[in-house]
Amino acid sequence: MSWIALRALVRKDLLLYFTDRRAVIMGFIAPIAIASFFGSIFSGQGNSEAARIPIAIVDEDGGAVSRAVVSGAQGDKTLKVTTPARAAARAAVRAGSITVAVVIPAGFGDAAGRAFFGGGTPPPVTMWFDPSHAAELGMVRGIMTQHVMGAVSKEMFGGPAGQQMVGESLKGLDALNMPADQKDALRTLLQSVQRLSSSSPQTGGGGRGFTMPYTVAEEAVTSQASIPYNGYAHSFAGMGTQFILFAAIDLGIGILLERQRGLWKRLRSAPLSRLLLLGGKALSGATIGIVTMLVAFAFAIVVFKVRIAGSVAGFLAITAAFAIMAATFGLLIAALGNTPGGTRGVSILATLLMVMLGGAWVPSFIFPAWLQRVTVVIPVRWAVDGLDAMTWRGLGLSAAVLPTLVLLGFSLLFGSLALARFRWEEA
Amino acid sequence: MLEVRHLRKCYSSVVAVDDVSFSIGRGELVAVLGPNGAGKTTTVSIISGLVTPDAGDVHIDGKRLRGDADPGKRRIGLIPQDVALYDELSARHNLQFFGALFGLGGRAADAAIESVLTLVGLADRGGDRVGTFSGGMKRRLNLAAGLMHDPDILLLDEPTVGVDPQSRNAIFENLEELKRRGKTLLYTTHYMEEAERLADRVIIIDHGRVVADDSVTRLRHSLSATDRVSLEEVFLSLTGRSLRD
User: Which conformational region is residue A194 in: left (phi greater than 0), alpha (psi within -120 to 50 degrees), or beta?
Assistant: First the structure.
């Protein structure tokens, strides 16, 4: 008899869910649409060019060195360089259309040359930056350092200004306040530079400057070298978990509505245990959750070429564990809630916090370190990290064991609390 | 058949039911009357297992009902005060579901569905969504849902609230038919004429206690030697005329 009742409880909830057009749209189409959008933003694949950082360079020096710096920056594929006037550059940063404005002051080339050989004060380069893009300031600083060093060293070791600078430095060497042996060493160095410059063919900008002493071979470490990172895998995992939790809210609110409409009295009047009644609800909720995730990923696999490069069994285990966890979360909502309306607002807030902190919207690795440590208490974090591991990271079944166990632990906690706090009296 | 012994239920400091005892025989229809908040619904809720009493117990044919999953609950059918149906589902799907809660499945369920739909006059509307039904049709289907598992005892908590005279009459005929089939019926109501028409016996509850338990005729005679007093006059003489809510 219990089996017939359990099957009826689950079947009825599924029937109610699938006859509700709004629920179906919210449960299946919305996560696919939002995940597709997020995936298109965060995905690293495709032919679309990565967004360049818009910067402005105000060249108030106009010399060979500063022109070389501007030229080098303009050739950098990371930057989108414009060269407005000083006031316009500052206004553009303030307006948010330029992330960083670099001001190269008058006399920069000479001062940088003197400072290059240790004989002068380094000239100040001003950087105005948009504080909402503070992270990009560091990138621009590094890139500009590379171009300035290249331009200055090239001029100093081969350009006419460099030869003049070396000559002046040799003349002024005796006036420098440094030990005699160091002066001798510096004189030898400058004379060597002079000889190098005069022996190099003068081709416009001079001879060779400093270059990067290494090259970088970049490789995104995914499941296999041939499989690139697919940002859609993460976005579908995140949106899948979010909408499973939304379905769980509907489960909890549905129980409150059943109570309000007197339906729960009929359920309670039947010779069924409390565990069976709540178990039936949990089973139907978990089924809806699993179907939600599978439909979302089926779409992602077909349309966006997402692959479960790791363990399929692990993927299914994490999905099932998360769906069970969400269903017990729904039961907890029903146990703690009073009115459907009031409970819905609080539940949505709690869910949004969970998905946000759990890394469902953006990967949790961009969080501050302290937040990354704290969010391990959020089940969404385990589900999203676990699904990432099974999809684009391509890890094996063993990597799914811990997330699955943790999610089942949360299920046990939520389910026990729901069973203990549920209002069973139907006056 | 149904015996209620010394039931007591308190909600904080409020005593909802206080030492309520009565028994009902097979094929008997008993009306439970009482002002608002008298304890009628709480008594029905305790019998049907929705509320756990602080003291006292319920017996069916001498066997005490124990706990949520007691198989004895299968002998009870509850028709709650609210129209407790899923508007989104068809009448047939509703009945199938409520029957399955009592272990009814397959052909037995199909036969029961046809039987109860015919009884309440909805045989031709089984496939329609309940949301499209009128108030009276929903009330009749509400009754049918409680009959799906063919219980011996029916607990009806104000089953005619808000229905038109035609539907009310149809429900009365259904109850009289069920009584003829030997079912035991416990019926709470505010309508004295319903009790006068249907009940073999009337139990009047006030302030959580049974203040009268007798046939309509004897209750009338308890107030006057003639039959001229109405049941309502008897009721008011026992419970008073002050407002309760």
Answer: alpha
Chain A residues within 8 A of B84 when measuring between CB atoms: 261-263, 265-266
pLDDT of A223 over the 70 cut: no
Distance CA A416, CA A426 (A): 21
Residue B3, phi then psi, degrees to nearest 5? -130, 130
Is B5 exposed, middle or buried, given 0-12, 13-18 or 19+ CB atoms closer than 10 A?
Answer: middle
Does B43 lie at the interface with A, CB-CB under 8 angstroms? no
Digit-coded pLDDT (tens) for A149-199: 888 888 877 777 777 778 877 887 777 778 888 888 888 888 887 787 777
Residue B78 has pLDDT above 80, yes or no: yes
Name the architecture of domain B2-82+155-239: 3-Layer(aba) Sandwich (3.40)
Put simply, whether A422 touches B (Cβ < 8 Å) is no
Asked if A425 is an interface residue toward chain B (Cβ–Cβ < 8 A), one would say yes
Question: What does the pLDDT read at residue B229?
Answer: 79
Taking the C-alpha atoms of residue A402 and residue A376, their distance in angstroms, rounded to an integer, is: 12
Residues B118, A5, A332: CA angle, nearest 5 degrees: 125
pLDDT beyond 80 at A114: no
- pLDDT number for residue A216: 67
A263 with A343: CB under 8 angstroms?
Answer: no
Interface contact B70-A262, CB threshold 8 A = no
Tell me whether strands B201-206 and B209-214 are parallel, antiparallel or unpaired. Answer: antiparallel
* Res. A204 pLDDT band, cuts 50 70 90: very low
Domains of chain A: 2-44+231-421 (no CATH), 53-199 (3.40.1710)
Report the residue from A4, A11, A427 with minimal CB separation from B45.
A427
Averaged pLDDT score across all residues of chain B: 90
H/E element holding B156? Answer: strand B153-157
Nearest Cα residue to A152 out of A108, A200, A192: A108
pLDDT at A82 over 80: yes
pTM: predicted TM-score of the whole model, two decimal places: 0.76
Domain boundaries, chain B: 2-82+155-239
